[in-house]
């Protein structure tokens, strides 16, 4: 028994197109309609045969869908919701894949009164963008967090849908989601963007030297700082409070480290560096990263 | 013609043991003597058959070596140099693999008057430590920076040695090396250690949540923050000025980003995030990282 027989995806970037591929692979009888505002993206979706129908207009994609998944930047959710509001079939459930949840829950609720809304966030992705970058196994064994206002039959169906796609599902309060992800995702991205910017702006060290000797650690940061600019702009603008709070904590800790270096407090440094090694161990034990050195990069 | 027929390595951690393996593979007739102060490490070196001789005492390892490579934390270089000072063969060249060069050049020069000193830094490594973590191809196509006080026949021979090991060699002024690596390696490590510490210290988000949802970006930082604590303590203590200078720049830029988020300046964010993406591209084009999404992690 399929959780949904007719699904619409709005936005066919990395996540939307991975979702389409995963649906095709795990639930091949689902009738899949997708939409994207960009003609180049639509052409690739057709060429890659990722869906049964491809529409220019979001409203046209959702007319008979039982589940509509918005896979657009968080800042575009309200406009897309307004576009589809008059076209949704009775009983349709609207979900999304955005990295910020309180704002999305509020925006979708305001634009779609009376509609069942089950915001979702698959904690998965890569630094690449666009329909060619997607792949079916992206959500395999990754967490998908659902943040409905109230848990019930609608969130149960969406949970069953993600489980079929290979993900592990967790329900969470939207505001708590935003605090957790501020730490595990938003702050790391902000820091990575910032340090890559800093490194490319120095006078005493040339940019070509930064690139040439990046294997010393810097290149890891550039991967994250290669993520989609608009998606991440919207994350920071729409999870402002949690990001600023977490950033404040980080800056405090960094200043303390700076002081320890200035005063030659080797024990403080070594104690922290030993503690952080244990956290890496936990992440590997939890199956959240590979144990292979250097992420398994080829040598 | 081998650059050196008899080589001694002091310290058989990740780098020392990789060096031993690479010598065995590329220059199998080299007579290789190694030393490590830790009996457990020596036992593993014997079991793995990484060298012709294994000594407890650093002095005993160097007696007939043409090249001595110190592969110990930067803070331990002076003591090891003092230990070998009376044992070096006439004409022996002393090198190292430390991530800080001005301090090492000064320390070795003071401890070994009249000895040819060619400090070196292979810009390669993983987050793992110890003799079991090493592998022969670690230096393949990676840069090795040499920072002799004066270039000449000694640095030519050390350059030829690293070239045989598969590395690309560059000569650089020691102080400039320390400024470049402060940006490309030391600051990234400091930031990673700091953010991993911050994330594990929050009250509103549990440590198990941080680990569970780390795939959103955080897990990348934990890899770097799993690097050897003593090695990195010594890097920060011995490259203090360049690290503090670079850290000051970074903090300035981060505060500017913080302000952009607070005031909702989306264009500022998007412009930076677009610029950083281009830097990632350059690093891949230069062969300094894999193009595969997510570093080629398995999905």
Automatic annotation (TrEMBL), chains A, B:
Residues in the signal sequence: none
Pathway: Amino-acid biosynthesis; L-tyrosine biosynthesis; (4-hydroxyphenyl)pyruvate from prephenate (NAD(+) route): step 1/1
Domain Prephenate/arogenate dehydrogenase: 5-291
GO biological process terms, semicolon-separated: tyrosine biosynthetic process
Keywords: Amino-acid biosynthesis, Aromatic amino acid biosynthesis, NAD, Oxidoreductase, Tyrosine biosynthesis
Catalytic reaction annotation: prephenate + NAD(+) = 3-(4-hydroxyphenyl)pyruvate + CO2 + NADH
Residue ranges of coiled coil: none
UniProt keyword Amino-acid biosynthesis present: yes
PROSITE patterns with a match to the protein in the record: PDH_ADH
One protein family per Pfam: PDH_C
The enzyme's E.C. designation: 1.3.1.12
Record carries keyword Acetylation: no
GO molecular function: NAD+ binding; prephenate dehydrogenase (NAD+) activity; prephenate dehydrogenase (NADP+) activity
Family listed: Belongs to the prephenate/arogenate dehydrogenase family.
Protein name: prephenate dehydrogenase
Lineage start: Bacteria, Pseudomonadati, Pseudomonadota, Alphaproteobacteria, Sphingomonadales
